[in-house]
Write a structure and sequence with these properties.
It contains 7 helices and 22 strands. By secondary structure, it is α/β, with parallel strands linked by helices. A 5-stranded parallel β-sheet has the order 5-2-1-9-21, with helices on one face. Helix 1 packs parallel to helix 7 (288-307) and helix 4 (157-167) packs parallel to helix 5 (185-192). The structure holds flavin-adenine dinucleotide. Flavin-adenine dinucleotide is lined by residues 8-14, 31-34, 38-40, 43-44, 49, 51, 83-84, 111-116, 158, 239, 245, 276-277, 286-289, 291.
């Protein structure tokens, strides 16, 4: 049986596409290479999201849970650990291939975000040796922070927001290599009004400890050493992404290496649409709300493509 639509990726864009597809009664399958939730669950589960309408503040993993529950309530089929490796033109159908399966589809929506992503590392002495022993790339659950000295690294919104989360339960510091943060004014204001200790214009000389992290040596702008005690370092300096699949799938890309789409979120390939962080256009803003908006458009376009309603 061919699905009306196969959606690749179960981040917020893919889940929203699934919700819209099921609302149109399309037979729908979402394939996810890891587990449901995308960046929200993999990169910042504990962070609060303040800019998703209807929630003053919601933890990232809870927002993802809600999207997941809504998709499931509409009988959207979701298969985890199914990494899509190819999309082939079949006889009037598209064949979506994963490592161990093939699925027939009348249309496809690509919502793979940044593809396979991993947190960016600092490559500082001691970092690799102490990874998982106090050096971390995402903020653990709040209850695991209590009583620990937590040090956040980074100057963007997420590093600040994670520091603010940690500050509610334990002693927290933030280290940034520049003199100013690269974050929303509201976050900087909240940080300045909190008890989080700030080390600005500082780089890392080393993460110290044998079996576990015990301290971090920083270098200030005058190259003076500062040693701060630490039980947990959380490094939040960006992510590296692998979007090589897009070229292999024969998609037209922008100069940023992301998918070029029409206004209806169609790609250059017949029956294939895209949405979310994987898509690029002038003025693109990579946010949950924009990805979900694009997903609604991509889904309606897939619906028109597959069902060919008289009004379309
Ligand atoms: C630290 C941080 C904080 C952020 N904070 C906010 C915020 O407060 N508010 C906000 O609006 N936005 C925020 N964002 C941005 C937001 O997370 C993204 O815009 C959003 O996650 C994009 O959703 P997506 O569904 O397009 O992609 P993703 O969330 O990246 O999901 C894509 C999914 O596709 C899967 N996938 C990849 N390749 C394949 C494949 N070949 N086969 C099958 N599945 C595949 C991935 O495993 C992933 O689950 C933040 C981002 C970061 C990094």
């Amino acid at each position: 049986m061919a699905y009306d639509v196969v959606i690749i990726g179960a981040g917020p864009a893919g889940l929203t596409a699934g919700i819209y597809a099921r609302s149109k009664m399309m037979s729908t399958l979402i394939l996810e290479s890891g587990t449901v939730g995308g960046q929200l669950v993999a990169l910042y589960p504990e962070k609060g999201i303040h800019n998703y309408p209807a929630y003053e503040n919601i933890q990232a993993r809870k927002l993802s849970d809600k999207l997941y529950a809504q998709a499931e309530s509409l009988d959207c089929e979701i298969r985890e650990h199914q990494k899509v490796i190819d999309i082939i033109d079949g006889d009037q159908k598209l064949i979506v291939k994963t490592q161990d399966n093939e699925y027939e589809a009348n249309s496809v929506i690509i919502a793979i975000g940044m593809g396979e992503f991993a947190p960016r590392k600092m490559d500082a002495p001691g970092e690799a040796e102490l990874e998982g022993k106090g050096v971390n790339y995402f903020l653990p659950l709040k209850e695991h922070l209590v009583g620990k000295k937590v040090v956040l690294f980074g100057g963007g919104n997420s590093a600040i927001e994670m520091a603010m989360v940690a500050d509610t339960v334990t002693e927290t510091a933030i280290v940034h290599r520049r003199p100013e943060f690269r974050a929303d004014e509201i976050n900087v204001k909240n940080l300045n009004e909190s008890a989080v200790k700030q080390y600005m214009s500082c780089s890392v000389k080393s993460f110290n400890g044998t079996d576990k992290l015990t301290s971090i040596t920083l270098l200030d702008q005058d190259k003076k050493e500062i040693e701060i005690p630490a039980d947990l370092a959380v490094i939040n300096i960006g992510i590296t992404a692998d979007l090589g699949a897009l070229t292999r799938w024969g998609l037209d890309l922008t100069e940023n290496g992301l998918v070029k789409c029409g206004f209806d979120m169609s790609t250059n390939r017949h029956g294939i649409f895209a949405c979310g962080d994987v898509v690029d256009y002038p003025g693109k803003y990579k946010q949950i709300i924009t990805g979900c908006g694009e997903a609604a458009t991509a889904c309606l376009s897939a619906y028109k493509f597959v069902k060919k309603p008289y009004w379309a």
